[in-house]
Design a protein that fits this description.
Elements lengths: L2 H4 L9 H5 L9 H9 L2 H10 L6 H17 L3 H13 L3 E3 L5 E3 L3 H9 L1 H12 L5 H17 L11 H14 L5 H7 L13 H28 L3 H7 L5 H17 L5 H4 L2 H11 L1
Antiparallel strand pairs: 1-2
Helix pairs in contact: 3-11, 3-12, 5-6, 5-16
């Protein structure tokens, strides 16, 4: 039996995720999704104890972003990336802050990490793009389920329709999620972050020199986008304040993003892997 022939396929070319996942605006949504993921005590404990997000945040971010792009644009390599991630998570286990044992591949925990992407994409689209129609929202959810299959998530572990998703999502928010240690750390406006170590040498040197000035501004912007692009019910579950003034500022920011990004050429609007896949699909 040919493994590749029987692997779950990535979402379709030309689908909702085909245009969404590789767009540079998606970068702005990642902090909100990550914060919601680590709000689950088991996930937060796994990241707290096993991740390098404190010592190598830029490398971790780059690897995570590459992985996400492969799920959508990786073709036959998508399922291979899903298998790699499951192998990577096999050894991640321990005890959470409430004394409960966890394993990263426990279906409920692994599914929650994946599930957070849908409400964040949906909410952020209201600011950064055009709000989804009902048909687009349903298609997005169906494609996100397909990505879940690529990652090895069984259908029995994820709600199979939008109607089933929202009760599940709110139940996890109400009964499981909390402002974990990692949530508080990610949202701290004064949390030190190492200077970026990616890119050309001249850029790294420049950023290193300017980082004492840039870092506190970076962490404040990260906090603003993390909370602002997080669905309101998730904010409420975590006890995060969001004022009317902040909402107005986010809407102004969104208007600028919506005006600028669509006007960019494809090579600047889409991330490299997505850009190459889109060109290849056009032949």
């Amino acid at each position: 039996m040919n493994t590749v022939d029987n692997d779950p396929k990535p979402p379709p070319v030309g689908g909702v995720l085909w245009s969404l996942a590789g767009d540079i605006r998606m970068l702005l949504t990642l902090p909100a999704a990550l914060t919601m993921q680590v709000a689950h005590p088991a996930v937060g404990a796994g990241v707290d104890e096993h991740s390098v997000f404190r010592t190598d945040p830029w490398g971790r971010g780059e690897r995570s972003l590459t992985s996400l792009q492969l799920w959508v644009y990786g073709g036959e390599g998508a399922a291979a990336e899903g298998r790699r991630l499951r192998r990577l998570h096999k050894t991640i286990q321990g005890t959470d802050a409430h004394g409960r044992k966890y394993h990263a591949l426990t279906p409920a925990y692994y599914a929650w990490v994946h599930a957070t992407g849908f409400p964040v994409f949906r909410h952020a689209q209201q600011y950064l793009g055009r709000p989804f129609t009902e048909a687009q929202e349903r298609q997005l959810y169906a494609e996100w389920l397909q990505v879940g299959r690529v990652l090895g998530i069984h259908d029995r572990d994820m709600p199979q329709s939008v109607e089933e998703f929202w009760p599940y999502y709110r139940k996890v928010l109400d009964n499981e999620c909390e402002a974990t240690v990692v949530v508080r750390e990610l949202l701290a406006p004064d949390q030190p972050v190492p200077a970026p170590d990616r890119g050309p040498r001249w850029l790294r040197l420049l950023l290193r020199a300017a980082w004492p000035w840039l870092c506190p501004r970076f962490t404040r912007v990260r906090r603003f986008l993390s909370i602002g692009l997080m669905p309101p019910d998730a904010r409420e579950a975590l006890g995060l304040e969001w004022t009317d003034a902040q909402e107005r500022r986010l809407r102004r920011f969104g208007r600028v993003v919506r005006a600028v990004v669509p006007a960019l050429p494809e090579r600047l609007r889409f991330m490299p892997l997505a850009c190459r896949a889109r060109r290849a699909a056009r032949g």
